[in-house]
TrEMBL record:
Organism: Remersonia thermophila
Domain Lactate/malate dehydrogenase C-terminal residue range list: 151-316
Enzyme class of the recorded protein, top EC level: oxidoreductase
Domain Lactate/malate dehydrogenase N-terminal: 11-148
Protein name, per record: L-lactate dehydrogenase
Length: 336
């Protein structure tokens, strides 16, 4: 990633949700120096105020202002990050969270869109792919301006695992996770490289054994990392906060960086679904200019991942339709 530009007076970032991810993101953003105005919005305003008071004691060292705000403060924001939602519990999949967190999005997203019609929405709340799709529908924004953090975190974890195995810095491992930010995510082995060489070729050149089982274990640890962290400490926050700042950097600096983020589109024959593929990020949003050259096995795995997300989106829509029909059926007629 390119270095961040110095804070600009016009750069405002709003974070909706003052929980552990939201506050850690605010702190990471503060240390990065990317924005000069960081606004926290939370239903528990008193808690948000306490977090802002604490953050402000660091803010004076970094020439930025951190404050509690309301949705009116989204106006002219470069980006609005949504981290609000129920936390994932031990043993709970991301897709189990959808009904509860959708109800929150139905309140939050239209208010953001009303006050900041030109902003970019960055979704971090899980299940992030389903909620990125929901935010796209609820906001009425172009799909380029509704971005989910998606597998940016998984890609970072994947490169960490591969770097540790091969004994190289993760920054020098070029490998991505695509598809769902969750159980059906797909490691793209066919395109993974180190030093410009495919992994099998790198192993040959470096006199390292190429072991499919060891590499699959790297992918498994990547997929299960969040579950392991949540089992041990009850939440994840540091990694995702750093990734969210990494997503913001090319948006604020208009630097055309490529990252695996979630965006609504058509994937492997599945229409109107959000999942992660490499996208070019800039001040206009996220763009998928060049498709990945996946092999046949990976294309099928991507289709299954897309379909699993689509199934949840469809189930959610069916649930909402049924709830609306029930509400209309039980609505009392007005008295004459």
């Amino acid at each position: 990633m390119p270095d961040s530009k110095p804070p600009n007076k016009a750069i405002k970032v709003v974070i909706v949700g003052a929980g552990s991810v939201g506050v850690t993101t605010a702190y990471a953003l503060l240390l990065d120096g990317l924005a000069s105005d960081i606004v926290l919005i939370d239903i528990d305003r008193n808690r948000a105020l306490g977090e802002v008071m604490d953050l402000s004691h660091a803010a004076h060292l970094h020439k930025a202002r951190v404050r509690v705000g309301d949705y009116e403060d989204c106006e002219n924001a470069a980006a609005v990050i949504i981290t609000a939602g129920v936390n994932q519990k031990p043993g709970q999949t991301r897709l189990d969270l959808v009904k509860t967190n959708y109800a929150l999005f139905r309140d939050v997203v239209p208010r953001v869109a009303h006050h900041a019609p030109d902003t970019i929405i960055v979704v971090a709340t899980n299940p992030v792919d389903v909620l990125t799709h929901a935010a796209y529908k609820l906001s009425g924004f172009p799909r380029e301006r509704v971005i989910g953090s998606g597998t940016a975190m998984d890609t970072t974890r994947f490169r960490h695992e591969l770097g540790k195995h091969f004994g190289v810095n993760p920054r020098n491992v070029h490998a991505v996770i695509v598809g769902e930010h969750g159980d059906s995510q797909l490691p793209v082995w066919s395109l993974a490289t180190i030093s410009g060489m495919r992994l099998r070729d790198y192993c040959t050149a470096a006199n390292i054994e190429y072991d499919d089982k060891v590499l699959e274990a790297c992918a498994t640890r990547t997929r299960e990392a969040a579950y392991e962290i949540i089992r041990r400490k009850g939440k994840t926050n540091y990694g995702v906060a750093s990734v969210l700042v990494s997503v913001l950097q090319p948006i604020v600096t208009d630097s055309d960086a490529i990252m695996t983020v979630s965006r609504v589109g058509s994937y492997a024959g599945v229409d109107d679904v959000a999942l992660s593929m490499p996208c070019k990020l800039n001040r206009h949003g996220a763009y998928q200019d060049v498709p990945l050259l996946l092999n046949d096995e990976e294309k099928e795995a991507l289709r299954k991942s897309a379909q699993s997300i689509k199934d949840v989106i469809t189930s959610l829509e069916d649930h909402l339709d049924a709830a609306q029909e029930t509400a209309e059926a039980t609505k009392k007629p007005e008295q004459p």
